[in-house]
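ARCHIVE RECORD
Type: protein–small molecule complex
Small molecule: pyridoxal-5'-phosphate
Source of inputs: curated submission
Record status: active
Notes field left blank by submitter.
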Amino acid sequence: MIYLDANATTPPDPAAVEAMLPFLGARFGNPSAAHAPGRQARRALEQARANVAALLCAEPDEIVFTSGGTESINAIHLGARAEWPDRPVLVTGAAEHAAGLECASRWRLQGGEVRTVAVDRQGVLQVESLREALEPGRTALVSLLWANNETGTIAPMRELVEIAHAAGAAVHADAVQATGKMALDVRAVPVDYLSLSGHKMHAPQGIGALFIRRRAAFQPLLLGGGQENDRRSGTENLPGAVALGRAAELALAALPTAAAEMARLRDRLETGLLASIPDAVVHGLGAPRLPNTSSIAFPGSDAAGLLILLDQKELCCSGGSACHSAALHPSHVLDAMGFDAAHAACTLRFSLSRRTTEAEVDAAVTLILSAVNQLRTLQAGPSVLTA
Ligand code: PLP
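STRUCTURE (tokenized, with ligand):
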């Protein structure tokens, strides 16, 4: 199998799995308990927190463990609406992940107003569009993807944050795809909140984190026993947190070597495909992009058909952003970038991880070219017969 779907989920790093295993057995203590096993669990949890903080250049007390990216994103949106009822405006991107989009719908249902920041043809969030959307005094939250999950396009976050703060709005960055693939520094780029997810960075599924800047307003989503310093009640997923901490440590140690190697392999993939399919379109090619993500349209080759052929050949990739199902629907991201539905229907997303090898990329190029040829021959079939 060749796995090029790391933006959907990554294989857990064996070292992260090894780190979590004792906490599924002998070290089962509850971090809130005062006795020895509890204290031992607390120490492991705090070490994991410090490791996650280090990856973001944050302080450990600014990190809250959650169940994943979706929960972190929901906590910020729902919390901001409750915290600032007199500031009804939410500003968000045109190409957000479903979690952000659905939270924006909820914001509207709760009587709020949602304004959208446009992206350009490369998928880059437009600074001027943010300026126009902001309404000082009425805007509670600006919530934007740091890096897009479909195209890998990176937002000019430092500039966006500066503009949002000047208008008095708090800023949330969905860094679920960015974390571990590019350097993130919340002191240099002072977002107020940041969401990340373990399973996108070689930790297991079901664990994530939320960065909450010291003194930033926050209303918890989950109420109860007051864990995580009253910011996220519920007994922590200690094995998951420990694995995430180890994964964060590994990601930090691997950057920037891993990023450079992923970019080299991503470029090799794109060059190999474009050499034989010159009409293929690489989305966001001229923009700052994550090193691992390649969204490519193969005009005339239906993505649903390509996915079936590639799956048969044990090459895993995805069409559009469907990380939750095999369902193909027109990509709102490509739509926001100005591409039509027919173009979007011919688009596949390949996403590498630091475990992807050159041999896998070369084999993938061969498989993709053969699938595109097969589909083009099939689609040409009827016209050949009727000619
Ligand atoms: N945000 C982005 C950009 C994502 O790509 C994803 C998952 O695909 C999420 C949020 C949701 O994260 P999780 O699967 O941890 O809930």
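CURATOR ANNOTATION: The radius of gyration is 22 Å.
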